[in-house]
Amino acid sequence: MKKKGAFICIEGLDASGKTTQARRLVRELKRRSFKAVYTTEPSPGEIGEFIRTYVLQRKKRVPIAVEALLFAVDRVDHLERKVKPALQKGKIVVSDRYVYSSLAYQGAAGLDLNWIEEINRSLVTPDLAIYIDVPPEVVLNRIKRKRSVMERLLIQRKVMKIYMKFVEDGQLMRVNGNRSKDEVAKDILATVLSFLKN
Ligand SMILES: Nc1ncnc2c1ncn2[C@@H]1O[C@H](COP(=O)(O)OP(=O)(O)OP(=O)(O)O)[C@@H](O)[C@H]1O
Ligand SMILES: [Mg+2]
């Protein structure tokens, strides 16, 4: 029997364990003879690279609408060039961040959620979207960066609030990420395997 492709995205706050868990999930799926690929946003392509240097590494923030538009352009590019071709080959694509990151982060920065949804309207809806739920205070302990702790805490709280809105309306499936990596991984794998069976 040919295994059908599926598009899974992993969301969460900074340092919530997305990369750790997305990579592990791909490894575990491959071990079970699924064809699985890891990918990430911003994408590994030229537009993603531009975002990394122009948006993420700058000290001064680019206008937030510009940021949202760039992410949307990268997302379309990434979908067309990497995600869709893989899905057509029957692969399971695990994306480390997707459109919910734009809604949560640019939304938390003050952009209208409806407008962010609007510029992302043409996108593929993920088959399964997982939110790794870790309290802002806990992720801040995992991050050692310059910005003041208070400022970061306020941002992460705003981001979490938007993510939780999507958990509540059923678009994101919540996994408790405030546990050991092994426990979180076990939970995510069980969720994904049960989804793939149905
Ligand atoms: N369940 C966990 N418990 C404790 N530490 C963890 C857990 N999961 C990940 N970490 C650690 O937290 C840090 C961030 O993890 P990771 O890079 O996977 O997060 P991320 O969500 O991808 O972060 P970013 O948003 O920066 O890409 C790493 O040092 C990782 O080892
Ligand atoms: Mg990461």
Which helices and strands, and how do they pair?
Layout: E1 6-12, H1 18-31, E2 36-40, H2 46-56, H3 64-88, E3 92-96, H4 99-108, H5 113-119, E4 128-133, H6 136-142, H7 149-168, E5 173-176, H8 181-197
Parallel strand pairs: 1-3, 1-4, 2-3, 4-5
Helix pairs in contact: 1-8, 2-3, 4-7
The structure holds adenosine-5'-triphosphate and magnesium ion.
Quick synopsis:
The chain is an alpha/beta fold and about 200 residues long.
Describe the structure.
Helices cover 56% and strands 14% of the residues. The protein is an alpha/beta fold. It has a 5-stranded parallel beta sheet, sandwiched between helices. The protein is globular and about 45 Å long. Bound molecules: adenosine-5'-triphosphate and magnesium ion. The site of adenosine-5'-triphosphate has 12 residues, from helix 1 and helix 8.
Which overall shape is indicated by the principal axes computed on the Cα atoms?
Answer: globular
CATH superfamily: P-loop containing nucleotide triphosphate hydrolases
**What is the count of DSSP helices, taking H or I runs of 4+ residues?**
8
Q: Percent of residues in helical segments?
A: 55-70%
The fold-level CATH name is Rossmann fold
Oligomer: single chain
Terminal-residue CA separation: 14 Å
Low-confidence stretches: none
Radius of gyration, whole Å:
16 Å
